[in-house]
């Protein structure tokens, strides 16, 4: 098998938008974003023992975050939700949304249904700024982790705009 370069477009992010009905979430692709870079924010434990000439480092955790930025488009459910959270200055658990990262290079097809490997995690939407451009109305901020990661699979709709997540057993 030959090596293939994984492109940015091979990893898609889907944002959980509250839908009609209590507890119903629809996962929409994060389209038209100008920034969606991820930082793992690794947590380290460092120490040096008296009888050694070097320091030891252990990796003890992660606190992932995703910077976001977008030119606001109408009829974009993800933009609409983040704008509403920002404009309302939403606090606490009401500002938590789930994000699914889908790896389009890791898939299985059975009976014409393709499932993709995915990771899902809750993030708190932390708005930073808005209106920073003269070309379009922009929003930016950070999505900061608010829970453990769940591995699973997703099935995407025909346009790859909606994801349905199933947690791994």
User: Termini separation (Å)?
Assistant: 30 Å
Spans of 5+ residues with little confidence (pLDDT < 50)?
none
SS-based structural class? mainly beta
Strand coverage percent: over 45%
Main sheet makeup:
6 strands, antiparallel, barrel
Q: From the alpha-carbon coordinates, what is the Rg to the nearest angstrom?
A: 19 Å
> How many helix segments?
1
Count of distinct structural domains: 1
Helix content: under 10%
Q: How confident overall, as mean pLDDT?
A: 94
Q: How many β-strands, per DSSP?
A: 12
Overall description:
- This protein is mainly β and 169 residues long.
- The protein has one domain (8-31, 72-167).
- Helices cover 7% and strands 54% of the residues.
- It has one helix spanning 77-87, and strands spanning 11-18, 25-29, 33-35, 38-39, 42-47, 56-62, 65-71, 96-110, 113-130, 138-145, 150-156, 162-167.
- The strands form 2 sheets. The protein has a 6-stranded antiparallel beta barrel. It has a two-stranded antiparallel ribbon with strand order 5-6.
- A hairpin with a 7-residue loop joins strand 9 and strand 10.
Task: Throw out a few tags for this protein.
two-stranded antiparallel ribbon, 169 residues, 1 helix, six-stranded antiparallel β-barrel, mainly beta
Concise synopsis of the structure shown:
By secondary structure, the chain is mainly beta.
Note the topology.
Layout: E1 11-18, E2 25-29, E3 33-35, E4 38-39, E5 42-47, E6 56-62, E7 65-71, H1 77-87, E8 96-110, E9 113-130, E10 138-145, E11 150-156, E12 162-167
Antiparallel strand pairs: 1-2, 1-8, 2-12, 3-7, 4-7, 5-6, 7-10, 8-9, 9-10, 9-11, 11-12
């Amino acid at each position: 098998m030959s090596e293939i370069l994984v492109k940015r477009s091979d990893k898609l992010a889907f944002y959980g938008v509250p839908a009609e009905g209590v507890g119903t979430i629809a996962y929409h692709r994060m389209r038209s974003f100008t920034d969606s870079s991820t930082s793992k924010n690794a947590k380290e434990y460092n120490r040096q023992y008296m009888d050694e000439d070097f320091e030891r480092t252990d990796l003890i955790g992660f606190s992932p975050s995703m910077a976001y930025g977008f030119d606001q488009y109408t009829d974009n459910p993800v933009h609409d939700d983040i704008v509403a959270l920002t404009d309302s200055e939403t606090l606490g658990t009401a500002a938590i949304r789930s994000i699914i990262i889908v790896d389009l290079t890791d898939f299985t097809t059975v009976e014409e249904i393709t499932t993709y490997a995915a990771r899902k995690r809750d993030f708190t939407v932390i708005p930073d700024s808005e209106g920073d451009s003269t070309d379009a109305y922009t929003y930016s901020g950070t999505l900061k982790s608010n829970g453990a990661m769940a591995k699973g699979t997703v099935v995407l709709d025909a346009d790859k705009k909606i994801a349905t997540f199933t947690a791994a057993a």
